[in-house]
Amino acid sequence: MEKVKSFHVSRKVIWGSSIALAILASIPKLFDADSTPGDIVINSSITLMFSIFIWYYNIYSLPKFSAQRTNKSLFNWKLLLSVVLGILIMVVLVIGHQELFQISKMDAPIMFELRGVLINLIVYMFLHLLFQNYQTQQMGMELERTHAINLGAQYELLKQQVNPHFLFNSLNTLKSMVDIQDPQSSDFILKLSDFYRFTLESRKLDLIPLREELQILDSYVYLLKARFEDGFVLINEVDQKQYDSAIPPFTLQLLIENCIKHNIVSLDKPLQINLYSENDFLVIENKIQLKRGVLSTGVGLDNINQRFAHLIHKEIEIDKTETIFKVKIPMIYDYRNN
Predict the structure, then answer these.
(1) Do 318 and 330 contact (CB within 8 A), yes or no?
(2) Which residue, of 117, 142, 157, is where some domain finishes?
(3) Angle at 103 between CA 101 and CA 109, to 5 degrees
(4) CA 48, CA 89: separation in Å to the nearest integer?
(5) pLDDT tens-place string over residues 19-76
(6) What is the largest CA-CA distance in the chain?
(7) Which of 307, 9, 337 is nearest to 159 (CA)?
(8) What is the DSSP letter of 33?
(9) Residue 309 contacts residue 315 (beta carbons within 8 Å)
(10) 230: which DSSP letter?
């Protein structure tokens, strides 16, 4: 589990801002004819020490992100306590410098107190704005983690959606072949076994080489041919140079299954599916010969689209005319680093 990063203010910010405030507080002294270099140094020293104290006090009193929630309002009793404590510390610093350096003439104490209150307010408000920004980032990261977990869970569900009707139909086909003592029954059993062995081996993988996907497809097509005979035709014209690209497992099987679901497949009206590569896409194309009474819900294509969106942040493309239906799948080449 990723450790939540604690709130932290850089020392460069603390010391840099404190030095800047010390310099700003001493600017009026530069234009005072009665001021000596010693007065400027002492004035800057008081401001610097006070600023650093206020920074660390407010950081210490700031509630931790994981411990408790801050009030929505910036102005509360903690600010009042900080201001009161700041006034006391400023008094101590002024008296301490007077005693240490034996200074008889300094700015009026009220000027130091006003400066202290102003510095206190600046540091307090800036620190709390930083903290609120930190909380917002943490909530955003938590939402991202939750979103990623949800996407992962959804994706795992998507990978499991291999149509159970296919197994039912395959077993029915096998029963018919056994009943008529078809000599190809043994081959059918071996191909069915190969297909489900591939299923078990590949279901936990996000991507597999296209070469392996086509091997799975060969077993799947053999089972379909046993069922539909010459009523189903698949023409594979994929360039072998593309075989080392990757694809989510069972993508082609789901697309062909989708074609069979919506189109007539018969000896009188064979369903021909063309599989080929085009630029950076793998194309599955079929002639439209829709079945009557079958409504398209788009679940199958949406499944595939979500898998690609989850893995490579790309979507499939669908081209449809009155006679031809095409699905274009993005080629994945850098899957080893995906």
Answers:
(1) no
(2) 157
(3) 115
(4) 13
(5) 887 777 777 666 666 666 766 777 777 778 878 888 887 777 775 433 444 445 545 6
(6) 119
(7) 307
(8) T
(9) yes
(10) G
Q: Give me 89's structure tokens.
A: 């510390």
- Whether residues 180 and 256 share a domain: the answer is yes
Q: List C-alpha distances in Å: 203 to 155, 156, 243.
A: 11, 9, 20
- State pTM to two decimals: 0.53
> What is the number of domains present in the chain?
2
- Quickly list DSSP for 264-309: ---SSS-EEEEEEEETTEEEEEEE--BPTT-----HHHHHHHHHHH
Residue 6 lies in a domain: no
Give, for 105, the enclosing helix (H) or strand (E): none
209: which 2 tokens?
A: 């080489």
Residue at which a domain ends, from 157, 181, 197: 157
- Yes or no: say if 138 and 7 are a contact pair by the CB < 8 Å rule: no
Give yes or no for a contact between 305 and 316, defined as CB atoms under 8 angstroms apart: yes
- Say if strands 246-247 and 208-209 run parallel, antiparallel, or are unpaired: antiparallel
